[in-house]
Amino acid sequence: MTVEQAILENVKVLSPDQQQEVLAFIKFLQSDKWEHIYKVKFKELQQEIRQDTDIDPDDDPTETVIEGIQQGFHEAITGQTLPLSQLWDGIDDN
């Protein structure tokens, strides 16, 4: 099944209100606004992390942690993820 087919199959079972939300989100992704909003929200998250986190000297420096969060968030948004069922595949192989 292609991604397009999976989307269509899943949208069919949603209520009309939920389908409208999906359509609004698709239009949002097609616009130039989503990248700007993503960057603004990420900067807000960075500031929150800096303000609300007591960094242990043994932990990674704040910038390294923030870069890791940014990379993970970017990978999640762009679909660069693994299915949960595959996350631990091969972990016991030695």
Show the helix and strand layout:
Elements: H1 3-12, H2 16-30, H3 33-52, H4 62-77
Structure report:
- The chain has 94 residues and is mostly helical.
- The chain contains four helices and no strands.
- It has helices at 3-12, 16-30, 33-52, 62-77.
- The chain is flat and about 45 Å long.
- The protein starts with a helix and ends in a 17-residue tail after the last helix.
Mean pLDDT: 78
How many helices in DSSP terms? 4
**How far apart are the termini?**
34 Å
Number of strands: 0
Beta-strand level of the residues, as a percent range?
A: under 5%
Largest sheet: none
Structural class assignment = mainly alpha
How helical, in percent, are the residues? 55-70%
